[in-house]
Amino acid sequence: MRKSTIKIAILGIAMLAGLFLRANDAHAGKLETAVFAGGCFWCIEADFESVKGVKDVVSGYTGGRTKNPTYKAVSNGGTGHYEAVKITYNPMQVSYDELLRLFFRSVDPTDAGGQFCDRGDSYRTAIFVTNAAQRDAAVRAKAAAAKELGRKIVTPIETAGTFYLAEDRHQNYYKGKSIVLTRSGPKKQSAAYKFYRKGCKRDQRVSELWGSQAPFVGN
Question: What is the CATH number assigned to the segment(s) 31-172?
Answer without folding.
Answer: 3.30.1060.10
